[in-house]
Amino acid sequence: MELLLRDKVMELVASELEALKQRIIENHRSAGQVASGRTTASLKVEITEDGGVLWGRSAFGTLETGRKGGKVPAGFWKIIRQWMDDKGIQVEKPDSFAYLVARKIAKEGTQLFRNGGRSDIYSPEVKDTVDRVSDGIGILFGSEVEHINLNFNENGNN
Q1: Fewest C-beta atoms under 10 Å: which of 4, 49, 53, 145?
Q2: Which domain of life, per UniProt (predicted)?
């Protein structure tokens, strides 16, 4: 049984979102940003009857922008300490170092933020995916119109 056009479109969207997820993960790894793996593990594709979404943890945007200075969570230095462990960063006084790094981030933002960010983790991949989905949907609709025309002509209608 031939898939309905809607099913073909949803199949295309699901496939492209899964591929997008994998490209983002690869870019994230290639940039040396992976520490604990929680960000990559948070990426999930969800397909509903209305479309599809690629979900990620709330801090996902900072992969390209960095974190600006300002209010930080309570015990932020402990988060930095865990990040150091995850990245394998070893210093003589790790708790003091984590506290100082956390204080600098709170005051000035991360180094990525201070350097103006980057645009190669997900931005170009999202644009390319949108283009591929648009092109694919155009092809699907084009073939559907051709199919309608063939059926119309086969039934003796002009």
Answers
A1: 49
A2: Bacteria
